[in-house]
Amino acid sequence: MKSCYIDYAMSVIIGRAIPDVRDGLKPVHRRTLYAMRELGNTSDKPYKKSARIVGDVMGKYHPHGDAAIYDTLVKMAQPFSYRYTLVDGQGNFGSVDGDSAAAMRYTEARLTKVAEELLADIEKETVDFVPNFDGSLEEPAVLPARIPNLLVNGSSGIAVGMATNMPPHNLREVCEAICRVIDEPGVSTEELMQIMPGPDFPTGGIIMGSEGIREAYLTGRGKCVVRGVAEIVEEGRTPQIIITEIPFQVNKARLIESIAGHVREKRIEGISDIRDESDRDGMRVVIDLKKGVSPQVVLNYLYKNTALESSFGIINLAIVDHQPRTLNLKELIHEYLKHRVEVVRRRTEFDLAKSEERMHILRGLLVALENIDAVIATIRASGTTEEAAKALVEKFALDEVQADAILKMQLRRLAALEQQKILDERDALAKEIERLTEILASEANILAVIKSELVDIGTRYGDERRTRIERKVETLEVEDLIENKPMLVSLTSSNYIKRIDLDTYRNQRRGGRGVIGMATKEDDGVERVFVANTHDTLLCFTDRGKAYWLKVYDLPEGQRASKGKALVNLLNLGGDERVTAVIPVREFRSDHYLFFATRGGTVAKIALDEFSRPRQTGINAINLRDGDALVDVKVTDGNQELILTTKFGQSLRFHEEAVRPVHRGAMGVRGIKLRSGDTLQAISVVEGDHLLTITEQGFGKRTEFDEFRGHGRGTLGVRNILVDARGGGVVGSMAVSDDAEIIVMSASGIVIRTKVSEISVQKRGTRGVRVMKLDDGDRVIGFTILDKEDA
């Protein structure tokens, strides 16, 4: 069993599934092309029925069933399967949609000019012939292959315990690369990649990055990622994605079906229609999108989740000296050149033998012409042809071949012009013999011939590259599948969080009632609101001074009245740990800082990049004293002024240089001195036009920054706003620009969006104006700024 299986395995490897490194063909392909040549089925002759070709191949060389032979013939005629087709088909030979070809009795075929180049010089004893399956005929063991077919058209096949998957390349580039190896045998793979940068697939597409190609060229194995070519068109009423090229070996109909399946199962939103508008002029798949959808996000999703982006695993396995070998690029070229050197040598020897044979005869004819009267007399004096030949050999020092040629010479050759033609032919043959002898004198001369042929092949059959190669590798991350847009994030006192599209809230005038922004329980209320982009990272800080990471797109997207999701389900929070500050971060920069403030008035400054490495269990941000809790965090650039605001309406302005940077886990220093019962509510970075302060009962005002001067860190500060029973305590304060908008949220989940410019600028000791009208028992719990780009 073991020996039989090994024999079977080797038979499959050598005789069926793996191509020969010399001509790049498997036996069935080689036999089909050779049989078509023997039939006279060449590119300059009429087409022949495919059934006749298949019958000839099967009856003479390949007795393995007509289906396998016809499938081979069909594939060699498909321009989407072969970079340079070897069969010129007439009729239905299948499509890129996976449609099968018509039956062989309906289609016709003939060789292409490229295939004829594979067979060129086969009659000149350039390759070995072996008996066919029944010994009645001979077939070539390999084709002369003037074209480097294995590199140009590639190959794929599954054998026993091994497989090959070689990509096609551009003929012009391959010929140039082989010429470079002829000129510089020691040329590096990197230098060859300047000429031949990578595969060139018949269906075009874009190869993402060249590292996998380089690995394949160096080792014989690698992987390249191929993307289809898609264009985003936003000129009409709705945006469109138009696909004009797809990855190699991808079925277009199945790709469209796959996209439709994703839409049907609601895995992708925003696609309203898919149409295949492909015709004989080219491929065109149109995807209509809904209004307001980001086309790039939809396209990224298609790249990530459909065959519009596919991997091509390169395995350069071929038969070398009757053994399967994995070859790198230079080895493939050297093996091809070794074969071509042998072919050109044998062809040259054949031509030289023919030329010398003809020269020998011409010499005999010239002897006869110089002694024509004596030759005629000798022939007339002979009784038979054999006697005449013998007499000519003895009398004029000729051999039998020359004597036979003289006897066969027609009388018209005795004319003067005919004699001159013989002399001219002799001179031309002498030059040809000299040229052929010179070629055989050294391998360098043979390689020069091969190079000139490759240049000619590249010029005649070469074309422009179809597949583009992007040097920059673009790996699609989760962010690429999600539109980056501003969202309103709200957090309740019970640590429920959600995000809502900002367009949900229309602008209202100051003093309005707002709309429901979140459904809350009686014992729960919205505690914080802020704006963040979907791609931002949220640094979530708890009352215990710990930091956790969360992506905005990971937050549940809800409706206005939805409650959201408990943070305990998104973060690994401790038992009664609560998130009290959330900072949206786009980039963890080393020259920026996080400025922390606690309820007891303590502050600390820590470099932002110390929080750049997320941990699922969270990290310690600052160390807190007993009874204290973290209340607010802000991002600074290291050269800004800050204002601390307390619940009783006190504010203190100081430069952040007054607080030296510390590492994570430090305790911090006193930021503001607090009166009995007062607590620190917020930090504001001095930027923009004014400081906006809002109280629990919906009152607010803007104040000039210049009114907060003259007090150092650790002091009581100055009064910022009048705090009384009517206005309530301070909820928070923020630096605002005059053209910004704010969103204010109440504990019962009511939200109002209004312009900052509608809130008047007042002195420090005033209560301000009504920003939001509240129901009895309700209170403002937070507000956030909408900058121009967010609004």
Automatic annotation (TrEMBL):
It is an enzyme of class 5 (isomerase). Keywords: ATP-binding, Cytoplasm, DNA-binding, Isomerase, Nucleotide-binding, Topoisomerase. The keyword ATP-binding applies. GO terms for biological process: DNA topological change; DNA-templated DNA replication. It comes from the Archaea. One of its GO terms (molecular function) is DNA binding. The keyword Isomerase applies. Its EC number is 5.6.2.2. A motif (GyrA-box) lies at residues 508-514. SMART domains: TOP4c. It holds the Pfam family DNA_gyraseA_C. Its main location: cytoplasm. GO terms for cellular component: chromosome; cytoplasm; DNA topoisomerase type II (double strand cut, ATP-hydrolyzing) complex. InterPro entries: GyrA, GyrA/parC_rep, Gyrase/topoIV_suA_C, Topo_IIA-like_dom_sf, Topo_IIA_A/C_ab, Topo_IIA_A_a_sf, Topo_IIA_dom_A, Type_II_DNA_Topoisomerases. A type II topoisomerase that negatively supercoils closed circular double-stranded (ds) DNA in an ATP-dependent manner to modulate DNA topology and maintain chromosomes in an underwound state. Negative supercoiling favors strand separation, and DNA replication, transcription, recombination and repair, all of which involve strand separation. Also able to catalyze the interconversion of other topological isomers of dsDNA rings, including catenanes and knotted rings. Type II topoisomerases break and join 2 DNA strands simultaneously in an ATP-dependent manner. This is DNA gyrase subunit A. The gene is gyrA.
